């Protein structure tokens, strides 16, 4: 074997005249004992000891026997058993390329060295005689070497080679059997450990506890010193370490890694397991793990249906520990089950948090909330419901909701609302409900169905106390109605004096003109203009007040469009000419009538045209009519100052103009467009605007058209 130190020479055993001095009977008895011992051995190392001790029988006459098995990871030969004087310690390793015992592993043949000191591969040891090296095979695969030494030169003959080959074959068969048994036992143990692990993990629904338990189980299954488990944060596209076992000098929980960073980041990107023999020398290591104690690393992805849940890594600080196929197989068995357990726990935790969130919303809501079953019975209620109706929760559970909080007069309607909600038709009404003490409360009722997995299981009802809101609304409506009624009733009292002032100013203007009194005529013109403006303002205010009070009446009838346009253009002509503008009329030949109030429609068009004249200088004002999608369209377009989108958005609000500078420069009350839109709506139509600064504005009225009489042109 050439690895033992060379002590003082010793005498070889005495040999009989026959092969190695043993009788045939003694040799056969020794070989029988060898076979029996090998057959009785259960483990790989036990088999090797049985072979070594059996061949060291005095009847066979060999001086030293050793069995070396190959470490597949390193290629080294490891001494697992020896027998004879000066036994070598088990565990001795011989590097590839050294010693005589490597030769059978290179060609699979028995090698005999009659005089070891004459061979160039010989390493000085206590043996200076002869040596036979026999290959050990398991299923035709070379797994080791049987080394037999003699202190005498040329000590081995054909009979010895036959005996040693038979012993090596028997050892190979036994080792193969032991390995199969050990593998089966290991798989059974692993499966049992995995089953126990999954049973433990499946019983845990609290996420943080399960994560640490999963990691601890993986560390125990693979018998390693370190471990980490990370969850994939999809929103941030990062891995987050959520469980750690003995990694680093401080707890690494909470560490974040980008996809592709470090070993776990690499596995998250590739979705494939990774084995690293020396992490410290690995070029892809993360800077966050620069100072670590471990050497070997095994990482596996946690996947569900191809979707990344996270990664799990196990590490060991022993430089001799190298992860192999068996470790990878075990981790690959563990990882999918762990991923499912983690995802289940995560879903459970999310569901529990969501449920707690909504429970808190219901409990702390100022709105009274009650849940019902399909028989209209109360399943639960919140504190706001108890406060509103004066019942404790225990008093309402199982009670019919409509019998509980309605009077006999309102019950049939309330039951209809409940049935409507259960029929998956949401309810939203203003109504009244009855408290425990018999008093009534104004409520806004909202009823919605509760459907779980496509099955209707009940309904939820919400009751918002609107007593104060309704009282405030009634007060506001009463005040507004009183104001509107007052202004409407004051129409005669306000208009009569103004008409008198306007009339007398016109009369006095004529007198001043006859007397050629220019100074007096100018003052009278100012009085007349101010009176006319004030009368228009009062008329606008009174019109708006009548609309708000509901006293404005529309006389809807058939309006002949051509006649209407003639009246409007004749009236607005002086206003158009005042600022040097030009009026263009575009009428559709097919348009003849419209369904409207003639007076109010005329007022709307005059208001739109007067506004266009006011805000346009030396430009064009276009009045266009057309029939479009069953409506009659009147569009007033100008080339004036225009408006921004923000200004156009509030132009129909009462007392609003585009901006304060516009009001100061051009005047006006800000009521004309408000009244015009309300008139259009009361006639069943709309009024809208499009505008752009510096490009002008276009106001469009749309009203329902009157179908032409049968047999006549439209």
Features:
disordered C terminus, six-stranded antiparallel sheet, alpha+beta
Written account of the structure:
It is a single chain. Helix content is 44%, strand content 23%. It has 714 residues and is α+β, with helices and mostly antiparallel strands. The chain has a six-stranded antiparallel beta sheet. The termini are far apart.
**DSSP strand content:** 15-25%
**Spans with pLDDT under 50 lasting ≥5 residues?**
3-22, 707-714
- Compute the average pLDDT: 84
**Main sheet attributes: strand count, strand direction, barrel closure:** 6 strands, antiparallel
Distance between the termini: 121 Å
Label the overall shape.
Answer: elongated
Order of strands, widest sheet = 3-2-1-6-5-4
The helix fraction, in percent, is 40-55%
Compute the number of strand runs.
24
Whole-angstrom Rg: 52 Å
Helix count from the secondary structure assignment = 19
Which class of secondary structure composition applies to the elements? alpha+beta
Draw up the topology in text.
Layout: H1 24-40, H2 44-55, E1 64-70, E2 77-83, E3 93-94, H3 103-107, E4 111-113, E5 130-138, E6 141-150, H4 158-202, H5 207-222, E7 226-233, E8 238-245, E9 256-258, H6 262-270, E10 274-276, E11 296-304, E12 307-316, H7 325-364, E13 368-372, E14 378-381, H8 383-389, H9 393-396, H10 401-405, H11 408-422, E15 427-434, E16 440-452, E17 455-465, H12 467-489, H13 491-514, H14 518-549, E18 557-560, H15 561-578, E19 582-586, E20 593-596, H16 598-614, E21 620-628, E22 631-638, H17 645-649, H18 660-666, H19 672-682, E23 686-692, E24 696-704
Parallel strand pairs: 19-21
Antiparallel strand pairs: 1-2, 1-6, 2-3, 4-5, 5-6, 7-8, 7-12, 8-9, 10-11, 11-12, 13-14, 13-17, 15-16, 16-17, 18-20, 21-22, 22-24, 23-24
Helix pairs in contact: 1-2, 1-4, 2-4, 4-5, 4-7, 5-7, 12-14, 13-14, 14-19, 15-16, 16-19
